Amino acid sequence: MEIASDESIDVSTFEWPAGFYADAGHAGLKADANVDDFGWLVSKTPADAAGVYTTNQFQAAPTALTKQTINLAHQLQAVVMNSGNANSCTGVQGEHDAAVMQQAAADKLGIAANLVGVASTGVIGEVLPVDKITNGIAKLGLTKNDGVTKAVLTTDTHAKTITVKCLIDNQPVTISGFCKGSGMIHPNMATMLGFVTTDAVIAGDQLQHLLSTTVDQTFNQITVDGDTSTNDMVVVMANGQAGNQPLNADHEDYPTFVKAFKLVLSHLAKEIAGDGEGASKLVEVNVTGAYSDHEGQQVAKAIVGSNLVKAMIFGEDANWGRVMQAIGQTDAHVDLNGVGVAINGIQMVTNSLAADYSEEAVAATLKKNVVTIDVDLHAGTAAGTAWGCDLTYKYVQINASYRS
């Protein structure tokens, strides 16, 4: 995916920031012995940390444990993770297994358990084969490879990664992120599993504020199928190896760091939306003329999350009425006689009425891999953006046989 940058920010080939290491392996959670299904991410020194987590009431044991661990002092030195088993809805046993996984990683690294986060993804309701995990952890090392970015995948078709570099106090600072997410994506305060590392110096409470704010504008603005999982979270670690002056709102270069950080999260969010289960198209909805930013985001997400809109895009059908019904289902302020809708630059609705457009031209543009819907509510000066995908036959096929 092409990413725009400017003179102060450089988008690079994926690499770990200074002082970060990783490794991955096959523990036997997935049937294919050639596919890695667990790994870890490790900082040379304790790092300031922040996280956001699923609001699903059935929050998985590893997610709850990581939240508790980060909330102690906003510090982490490692995150150990697995795919193939969510360790969710597994009761007291699941809590015990998550703690065993945490302690095993801590023992291997020679650090305190309260510096280790835990992340799991996969089938819900099955007990974690924790012996396989602990045996695998014993074999992990500290490398600079990117295997862990693939080891967390489930129904994803590819790894989702990005590295962004910028100058802070004339010192090079690197921010790298990776995530997994393809189905059960309709977040509230987080989505999927996401991991961001940086060598910048930034305190944990400042990092938490930045993460929470940026997640609302990025990960919380994607939807694939309207379902929020039990294991979703995003974790950020900043180990300070770049040696810059501590970043805060008063720092001259803080806006540059914020811009680079948002670029990382927005890229990963769009990667998830475009890789939705069975998806053939990435859908971006841009809303302008909103009464408030909140309402702009609300309307954008309602459109991209509408199954009727998603099916329309998959079917390459110029049925703009489905966009209008999605707008109308929200409680946002709308000029009922002034709404405008365009798809890939073709104006289809003006003043809430059909514009003069070519059905053939719209059908042709809907064949593209990226479909952009622009909506003007004519109710204010605010805006919002959301990302999603089309709804295909393949989505049903994947989820009809997920466990088998």
Automatic annotation (TrEMBL):
The gene is argJ. One of its GO terms (cellular component) is cytoplasm. It catalyses: L-glutamate + acetyl-CoA = N-acetyl-L-glutamate + CoA + H(+); N(2)-acetyl-L-ornithine + L-glutamate = N-acetyl-L-glutamate + L-ornithine. It is found in: Cytoplasm. Its EC number is 2.3.1.35, 2.3.1.1. Pathway: Amino-acid biosynthesis; L-arginine biosynthesis; L-ornithine and N-acetyl-L-glutamate from L-glutamate and N(2)-acetyl-L-ornithine (cyclic): step 1/1; Amino-acid biosynthesis; L-arginine biosynthesis; N(2)-acetyl-L-ornithine from L-glutamate: step 1/4. Belongs to the ArgJ family. The lineage of its organism: Bacteria, Bacillati, Bacillota, Bacilli, Lactobacillales. It is an enzyme of class 2 (transferase). It comes from Lentilactobacillus parafarraginis F0439. The active site is at 191 (nucleophile). InterPro entries: Arg_biosynth_ArgJ, ArgJ-like_dom_sf, ArgJ_beta_C. It comes from the Bacteria. The record marks 121-122 as: Involved in the stabilization of negative charge on the oxyanion by the formation of the oxyanion hole. GO terms for biological process: L-arginine biosynthetic process; ornithine biosynthetic process. SUPFAM superfamilies: DmpA/ArgJ-like. This is Arginine biosynthesis bifunctional protein ArgJ. Catalyzes two activities which are involved in the cyclic version of arginine biosynthesis: the synthesis of N-acetylglutamate from glutamate and acetyl-CoA as the acetyl donor, and of ornithine by transacetylation between N(2)-acetylornithine and glutamate. GO terms for molecular function: L-glutamate N-acetyltransferase activity; L-glutamate N-acetyltransferase activity, acting on acetyl-L-ornithine as donor. Its main location: cytoplasm. The record marks 190-191 as: Cleavage.
